[in-house]
């Protein structure tokens, strides 16, 4: 415990949640245990918002020597699928967290929850209501108007028991009866007005099959699952604050000692230019507006992974935004900043030309080629050097040449000189245009052998340095450039407009015939690089040796921030 205090003292930016945890540990609550859980509902893929919860749940347990369970909240048999369970596990591991052997399911507790419901009925604390859902909901009242008691509220215990058992035997239709907790219809907190705790669902459950015909509501399963697992700190998002009195009430009926989980709420992660609703993300997938859950434009963890994000960059971003009690919307530029910062230190710089224009160096021997040596990462010399072949014909970026350049265009133009990075200084002597299209096809240059990088006997200086790829050695590749999926900061938050209206039509641009340096021939899926002057790129899952595909993770600079200035 002393260690914990020291830990806390060292780090000034600890969240209010961590403060609470430290206090609890200090007071010796729960015998000094910390045990958290991450409780996803397996009805979709995890997104960056979930990462915020994961980093907190697993992070706090790790930091204070505790445990974190993975618990699938699988109370709704209709929407849940094993595909989601597998992806959720993969994504949590990828983020760098481990639940060891503690993989649980709310459905593990269906038996216990059923017993608890029976117990509530026997104690006069739950009743079967025969009214349809709309009537029950109309009777709930409003926050300022008390609710109306159901005519079935005072049903005798024996009748309730009999009906509830028969509900579970499949005797009644879905929606014809529910089990409600008997609390108080006048309490201002609407969640306490005799909430529904069990409903009839005649669906097969992915784990319990046909065993149950009644299923607990999320609110009836969640708090008790925490209790059954001995969770000490139940960390969840702000919308559950109003559910807390109900969870407390239920635990009060259940608990046999002083132990109870402590629920602490924090703000959800919202990000600009995207949305976090699993339901809407599923729509994007089902309607084919993106290419699956792992489309690199999706805010899902698998999408971000495929885009080239690292777990470190995501954890760093979560660290930067922190945990508070106020809802906010975070700027996606900060996430992009985090990945740039991480990749800058880690990945090698390479040459890739996305929009190639051929340069012919007329005084370089036709049959010659030579290797020039280039530092892999100036931020980290230990990453070594690599050899890049240079020859008479090289590709440069089309927009690095201009026939009639404006002032201060320090790239290539008729009569000007630039350095080809790591190689020589070249001078443009002429160029060739296509007669019909007027498009520039080739640029002719001379090179100065005395300007070789590293040797550089001439001492000549030029303002511009270009990246390039030897035409003879180039690897042809497809490059996918991604932009924001939506062109509105808050696409899902507009009352009068459907979010689809804000889909960015240019969120994916596919470039073919890009020219990459030959070292990239051996790049494997998810290998990451900085294409010099262009951004960070990674090898896509669909990439093959004969058809390499690279995704742009992020450009080098934040062009959006600039445009919005
Ligand atoms: P739904 O919208 O389908 O109810 P959900 O977003 O609540 O889903 P769950 O699978 O129930 O998704 O979430 C698992 C955990 O992740 C919950 O504890 C939830 O509070 C947390 N979580 C979900 N979305 C976010 C978010 N945007 N920011 C922070 N935490 C989140
Ligand atoms: Mg949920």
In words, what does this structure look like?
With 565 residues, the protein is α/β, with parallel strands linked by helices. 27% of the residues lie in helices and 22% in strands. It has helices at 2-10, 16-26, 48-63, 82-95, 110-122, 133-138, 157-168, 218-228, 244-254, 278-286, 301-307, 311-321, 332-346, 559-563, and strands at 35-38, 67-72, 103-105, 126-129, 178-181, 196-200, 214-216, 233-237, 262-266, 349-350, 352-353, 356-361, 369-375, 385-391, 393-397, 417-420, 425-433, 440-448, 465-466, 469-470, 475-482, 508-516, 528-531, 535-539, 549-555. The strands form six sheets. A seven-stranded mixed sheet has the order 10-23-24-25-21-22-11. A seven-stranded mixed sheet has the order 19-16-17-18-12-15-20, with no helix packed on it. It has a four-stranded antiparallel sheet with strand order 4-5-6-7. It is elongated. It starts with a helix and ends with a helix. Residues 1-5 and 7-11 have low confidence and may be disordered. Bound molecules: adenosine-5'-triphosphate and magnesium ion. Adenosine-5'-triphosphate (ATP) binds at residues 39-41, 43, 49-50, 52-53, 236-237, 268-269, 276-278. Adenosine-5'-triphosphate is lined by residues 39-41, 43, 49-50, 52-53, 236-237, 268-269, 276-278.
């Amino acid at each position: 415990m002393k260690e914990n205090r020291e830990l806390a003292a060292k780090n000034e930016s600890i969240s209010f949640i961590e403060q609470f945890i430290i206090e609890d540990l200090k007071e010796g609550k729960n015998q000094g245990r910390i045990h958290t859980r991450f409780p996803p509902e397996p009805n979709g893929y995890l997104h960056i918002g979930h990462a915020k919860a994961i980093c907190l749940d697993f992070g706090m347990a790790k930091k204070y020597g505790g445990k974190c369970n993975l618990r699938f909240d699988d109370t709704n048999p209709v929407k849940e699928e094993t595909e989601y369970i597998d992806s959720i596990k993969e994504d949590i591991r990828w983020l760098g967290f481990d639940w060891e052997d503690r993989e649980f399911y709310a459905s593990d507790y269906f038996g216990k929850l059923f017993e608890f419901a029976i117990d509530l009925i026997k104690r006069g604390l739950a009743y079967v209501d025969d009214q349809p859902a709309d009537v029950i909901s109309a009777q709930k009242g409003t926050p300022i108007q008390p609710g109306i008691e159901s005519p079935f509220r005072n049903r005798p215990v024996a009748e309730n028991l009999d009906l509830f058992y028969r509900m579970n035997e499949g005797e009644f239709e879905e929606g014809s009866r529910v089990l409600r907790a008997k609390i108080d219809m006048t309490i201002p907190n609407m969640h306490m007005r005799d909430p529904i705790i069990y409903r009839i669902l005649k669906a097969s459950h992915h784990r319990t099959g046909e065993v149950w015909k009644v299923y607990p509501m999320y609110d009836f399963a969640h708090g008790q699952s925490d209790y059954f697992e001995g969770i000490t700190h139940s960390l969840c998002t702000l919308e559950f604050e109003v559910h807390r009195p109900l969870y407390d009430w239920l635990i009060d009926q259940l608990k046999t000692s002083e132990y109870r989980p402590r629920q602490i709420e924090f703000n959800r992660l919202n990000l600009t230019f995207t949305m976090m609703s699993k339901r809407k993300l599923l729509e994007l997938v089902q309607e084919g507006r993106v290419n699956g859950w792992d489309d690199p434009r999706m805010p899902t963890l698998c999408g971000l992974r495929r885009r080239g994000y690292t777990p470190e960059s995501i954890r760093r971003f979560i660290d930067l935004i922190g945990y508070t009690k106020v809802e906010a919307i975070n700027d996606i530029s900060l996430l992009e900043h985090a990945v740039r910062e991480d990749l800058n230190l880690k990945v090698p710089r390479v040459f890739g030309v996305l929009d190639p224009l051929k340069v012919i160096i007329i005084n370089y021997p036709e049959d010659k080629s030579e290797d020039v040596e280039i530092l892999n990462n100036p931020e980290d010399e230990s990453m070594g050097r690599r050899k890049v072949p240079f020859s008479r014909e090289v590709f440069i970026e089309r927009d690095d040449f201009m026939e009639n350049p404006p002032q201060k265009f320090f790239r290539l133009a008729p009569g000007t000189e630039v350095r080809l990075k790591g190689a020589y200084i070249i001078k443009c002597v002429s160029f060739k245009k296509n007669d019909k299209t007027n498009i520039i096809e080739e640029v002719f240059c001379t090179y100065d052998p005395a300007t070789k990088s590293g040797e550089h006997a001439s001492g000549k200086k030029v303002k511009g340095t270009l990246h390039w790829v030897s035409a003879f050695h180039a690897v042809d590749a497809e490059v996918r450039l991604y932009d924001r999926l939506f062109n509105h900061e808050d696409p899902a938050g507009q009352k009068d407009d459907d979010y689809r209206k804000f889909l960015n039509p240019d969120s994916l641009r596919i470039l073919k015939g890009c020219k990459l340096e030959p070292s990239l021939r051996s790049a494997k899926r998810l290998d990451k690089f900085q294409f010099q002057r262009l951004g960070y790129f990674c090898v896509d899952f669909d990439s093959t040796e004969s058809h390499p595909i690279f995704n742009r993770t992020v450009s080098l600079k934040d062009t959006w921030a600039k445009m919005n200035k």
